[in-house]
Known about the structure:
- There is one protein chain.
- This protein is mainly α.
- The protein has three domains: 6-105, Fumarase/aspartase (N-terminal domain) (Fumarase C, Chain B, domain 1, Orthogonal Bundle), CATH 1.10.275.10; 110-357, Fumarase C, Chain A, domain 2; 360-452, Ribonucleotide Reductase Protein R1, domain 1 (Orthogonal Bundle), CATH 1.10.40.30.
- The chain contains 19 helices and four strands.
- The protein has helices at 15-21, 24-27, 31-47, 53-73, 84-96, 109-145, 165-190, 209-215, 225-230, 233-259, 287-310, 324-347, 353-362, 367-376, 381-397, 407-413, 421-424, 427-433, 442-456, and strands at residues 150-155, 158-164, 267-269, 349-351.
- The strands form two sheets. A two-stranded antiparallel ribbon has the order 1-2. The chain has a two-stranded antiparallel ribbon with strand order 3-4.
- It is elongated and about 100 Å long.
Amino acid sequence: MKKLWDGRFKSGLDPFIEKFSSSMSIDVKLAKYDIQGSIAHVKMLGKVNIISKNDAKKILHGLEEILQEVSSRGLKYTPADEDIHMAIERILVEKAGKVGNKLHTARSRNDQIALDERLYLRSELKEVSELIKKLQATVVNTAQKNIDIVIPGLTHMQHAQPVLFSHYLMAYFNMLNRDRNRLKDCLKRVNIMPLGAGAIAGTSFPIDREYVAKLLSFPAITENSMDTVSDRDFILEFVSCSAILMMHLSRLCEDIVIYSSEEFGYVELDDSICTGSSMMPQKKNPDVAELIRGKTSRVYGSLMTLLSLMKSLPLSYNRDMQEDKPALFDAVETVKACLKAGAKLLENMKLNKKRLEYVLIRDFSCATEVADYLVRQGMAFRDAHKLVGGIVRHCIDNKKHLSDLTYLEFKTFSNLFSKNILDFASPNSSVKSKSSPGGTCLENVKTQIEKAKSLLK
């Protein structure tokens, strides 16, 4: 099959190289965006009389017909189609006749693909942001449903201090909010219209780029033709933001894998989101959490692929950049799937209250409260820290927990202890006392939740 660019070539393209260089199997995802861009481009060509109004009308009719076919049945392409642009143009010529050959006037595939990718990413970016928002809403609902349940807060994977489970969950709300804000900012760099840059130098035709931008709802146009056709920063930025988002999801999933284990037993996952073992009848595996954790590496891989792809490329466009799409598309689809799965994970998770109460009574996570108690009585914190360390040592040596100690036992360590120490050395009392801004007390968490609801509106 003859190519639209083969005028200066004596022989045809080697069949293997034709297949090797084709990006059609990947490009097909961009079909509707390519047609939308072409429709705006043709309207502009007709408006400024680069082509006749009649020719523009014929081409537009053909493009609209192709768009309808793509929307209903998908795009039918041939092995000889080099890329999405060539496929659409070939189909247009078949439908509209030779006038279809005027479609490519005053543009290049270099600025055309930049437009397609920006249109695609603009659409997907908004969907990803909405999915983050839905996951945030699930976080808030789950936090509110378990508003007053206390869990051991961990540092270094060791019991540190008691915290409200709702406070713990709202930490992830904040992470997700930063993710959403990053994507909102990323949209500013995506939402710039590149068409009109041509292959490298712009065009000598009297095009109206601002008109095309208006038709496609872009608030601005790119300013340098060489940068325009060689820029993939907007893709890199999106995938970078996605990698951070996936890191947050992976941390949440790691927690859930640990907390649902037999050793911890803090949470139980519904059967609907778990699988069993083909060999061990007793198994209930936290597959959703593990898969999200695993798929994080795919998004990281996409980011590394794109960074490596763009490294050291000379200005301006190079065919290497054709390989940006698999990494971009995979990152987008992976992130969307993981956000949906993450919401189901939280919706189908129950806290084991009895287990949590049992664990909290038997750990030493209230030790800091005992030290703070002594500080309030006038002891220096370092001295209190050392003294309470001795109390913990005493408990370990005597196979006791802080909750087992009587007032008189506390008194043997310091006369500063009063009978109310027994109230201070409890998980609920510890949580209640953390009223500093950002702390884990119930009133603070309620404030966080109300603020979160307001942000989601």
